[in-house]
Design goal:
By secondary structure, this protein is of the alpha/beta class. It is built from 15 helices and eight strands.
Length: 374
């Protein structure tokens, strides 16, 4: 007498390893996606925001001519690139070809052909002219179910360096006296020739990158190496830590504070509080906040100096709450750099880098919003 176990593995005949393919599939793509998959809630938010951009899309396209890739599908595909850390548009097209989840989210059927990577990039560049990334970012925040999640009184600001898509060998004198490595000036030629920088003074005033002229040589703090980079800025609200503003500027010593004041002017009303780290503890920034009717809740920098804020601000319990909430702004920065893939940008030119930075910030919000609503 033979006893079969609970999995039915008693006396069973070995199955044949043969591939059987049908000519037709009778399972709709919609049914292949689990009902509780996180992308379902994100897709609803995305479609609602994209519906509000229809007029903006119409302005970017001619009434007649050959049909192009639908801008809605372009943006959904780019969101997937951020969600799943896809390194390039070519890999994104490869994923779209066989990944049914990607096809469903973008809006392609199982049999629709996938675009060529070059065609996809050229169609994507059309969206740069209409500043679609910023408008899409705003549409998501203005959704009725999202507005109730945002604080209108308490904010945090911070900045980070985004490494440029350019090597240090491309950082050469502007007068052309020292061409970039690989042009044969050392007799070796090649696309990655050796280069010796010892004893050479390189400054942004006299040098620029031939790969990305908008990149600047900058270091975040003492003891850290200087890199060719751009500077990204975020402003978050303190209730749920959602991003309410995202910008990219030239990397320099005052960019963080100057851009923060601009974001405060555009987003914060009188009576709001603004948290920041010790880098924002300067007389100019504190005065700029108060001029705009906001209270600066920045961490005090008392290292061999006097802080720009005193006990009139720090004695309130709200100050301590702001200094704790402020640290949450590191979460979107971490997600944007690691998952979103912007630790080192894949694009050249500040306008393109900012476009992707804002879109990746939108992707972060779309990841967070359904979790908060749930």
């Amino acid at each position: 007498m033979h006893v079969c176990d609970s999995f039915g593995l008693g006396d069973a005949m070995r199955g044949e390893d043969q591939r059987s393919e049908g000519f037709f599939s009778y399972v709709p793509l919609e049914r292949r996606i689990p009902a509780n998959h996180p992308l379902r809630a994100i897709r609803l938010l995305t479609d609602e925001a994209l519906a509000g951009l229809s007029r903006d899309f119409n302005k970017l396209y001619a009434r007649d001519g050959r049909p192009s890739i639908a801008p809605e599908r372009l943006l959904r595909a780019l969101l997937l690139q951020a969600f799943y850390t896809v390194r390039s548009e070519r890999q994104l097209m490869e994923q779209l070809d066989y990944n049914l989840l990607f096809r469903w989210f973008v809006g392609l059927s199982a049999d629709d052909p996938v675009w060529d990577a070059t065609v996809f990039c050229k169609n994507r560049d059309r969206l740069l002219k209409g500043d679609i990334a910023a408008k899409f970012f705003t549409k998501v925040l203005n959704l009725a179910q999202v507005r109730q999640l945002l604080s209108s009184e308490h904010f945090s600001v911070d900045g980070t360096l985004i490494e440029a898509w350019a090597s240090m060998k491309s950082f050469v004198p502007k007068d052309g006296s020292d061409p970039p490595a690989g042009n044969g000036q050392d007799g070796s030629g090649g696309r990655n020739a050796e280069r010796d920088f010892h004893g050479e003074k390189r400054k942004n005033d006299t040098h620029s990158s031939t790969t990305d002229p908008d990149a600047r040589l900058f270091r975040k703090g003492a003891g850290k190496e200087a890199k060719l980079c751009h500077m990204g800025h975020l402003m978050t609200e303190n209730r749920n830590g959602l991003i309410v503003d995202a910008r990219v500027t030239e990397a320099n010593g005052t960019a963080e504070r100057d851009t923060a004041l601009d974001m405060i002017k555009d987003n914060a009303k009188a009576g709001s509080t603004v948290g920041g780290d010790k880098n924002y503890d300067t007389a100019d920034f504190v005065a700029g906040c108060r001029k705009r009717g906001c209270t600066p809740h920045v961490s005090q920098n008392n290292t061999n100096r006097r802080s720009a804020i005193d006990a009139r601000t720090t004695r309130h319990s709200g100050y301590r709450i702001s200094t704790v909430k402020r640290k949450r702004i590191e979460e979107p920065f971490g997600w944007i750099k690691t998952v979103g893939g912007l630790r080192k940008t894949r694009h050249c030119g500040r306008a393109l880098v900012e476009w992707f930075f804002v879109l990746t910030a939108t992707a972060y919000n779309l990841i967070r919003i359904p979790k908060i609503l749930a």
